[in-house]
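question for whoever is on the cluster today: can someone run the full assembly for these? two chains, 511 residues total. i dont have access anymore since they changed the login thing
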Amino acid sequence: MDNKAKILIVDDDIGYIESIRAILESKEYIVDAAHDRESAIEKIRKIKPDLILLDIMMDRLDDGFTICYRLKHDPELRHIPILTISAITEKTGFKFSPTTDGEYFEADDYIEKPVKPSDLLKRIERLLKG
Amino acid sequence: MRDVYTASDQRHKMPGKATILVIDDEESMRDSCWQVLTKDGYRTETAADGNSGLQKIREIKPDLALVDLKMPGMSGMELLEKISDIDPNIVSVVITGYATIESAVEAMKRNAYDFLPKPFTPDQLRIVTKRGLERRRLALESARLRQEKERMRENFVALVSHQLRSPLVSMRQVFDVILEGFVGEVASKQKEMIEEASKRVDELLKLISDWLDMFSITAGKLTEKFGPVDLSTVLSQTMKLLQPTAELKKVRLQMQPTDSSCLVKGDQESLKQMFVNLMSNGINYNREGGTVTVSTREQDGYLVVDISDTGIGISQEDLPFIFDTFFRVKTKETRNVTGSGLGLSIAKRIIEAHNGSINVVSELGKGTTFSILLPKAKMEQ
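^ ran it for u. tokens below:
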């Protein structure tokens, strides 16, 4: 059995996925991607990734929140670590964090776009060790 | 004049018929008002005293209420206040037999819009009613516009952050991945050009972020975060933050020691941003070997921070415009300085949100001094 972790990138920006994929594949992670809310949830159930990189604003501005909420309230999926990646800054007024938003945002970590590749890899490693 | 809703009189038309409530203890008065107003096409209801009047107000939510000032039980004055509590947009018109200036003033204070002294003619009633309804229409319309504007502003901010920032951030990410060699070796000339492109993207991101700042400051959200702030801490943090930039430009950044207390009431983050904007101007519009000096002093209950540079200075013609949004001084010396033209306007808005002010003195070729005045916080001990 392959020991390398499976990571699912959920983002509606295909170009962005490709750049993140390049970073992850340099460390030989197995990378898969989904571009919208429904296909993301479907794929998560099917492939059971070891970690999810989740964008917040997709078709709807709160798609990421919805996905996060559904996963963390599903006994079979709630153990999968979620690292949210978003371009929202606090300036938009959409202030949120796992500590202030409690059950509505139970992501395991949060990182701002654009990410520094080394920072991203470090956080992923930490979450996978869990 | 039978029907107020004729084609030529559309501007008085509300959605459906306007509803008017007449509250008067005199039956003859209620009846005559009812007749005139109903004939004119209004939906008219009556009440004989304050309590039943209030009940009807809640039930039928009239556009306009005609209120007799002198009634047994609840007085007209009291009634006016209660109507306004239920819905401040209901226009109240006072009817009274003892039309004195005092009672008129008193009624106006309680949110009455107009005054109808007894006895009045049907035409006088019509005019006052029409005017009152027009007033209501305008009030509702402007409330609607204000709401619309607020919604647009919020949507715009969301749009800016999502639609404009996302593609730029994505570009920036691609550049990083290429530059760090994740997709193969990059030749040095290629690297140089991608770095240049990446820098330009950063400038654009900065512009958008500055713009979002402008919105959040105007929105008056800043005051919610006010607390005691020690300016000397903020100033030294800012100087530390800008030290690398200053070194790069070969400019010396120095703070003059002070013994006055530097406590103000405000939002630490935005005050820091304001100082960053002002000091980085001092650095960027300076020359090699120049200095930026920061000092604080007290003046009439205000804390004054002076930021002086030995830079290129601002001409008298440009000086009045430097706080305008998107204004940038265009000379040979400023050509290589990049910026959004928002730095000073943001700084000024932040200062004004703190009930302070900013002054500038400048001499071309010699340098510029910005003086920031902020009200001192009272020591609560």
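summary bc i know u wont read the tokens: Chain A has five helices and five strands. The interface with chain B takes residues 13, 15-16, 18-20, 22-23, 26, 57, 61, 87-89, 91-94, 113-117 of chain A (CB under 8 Å).
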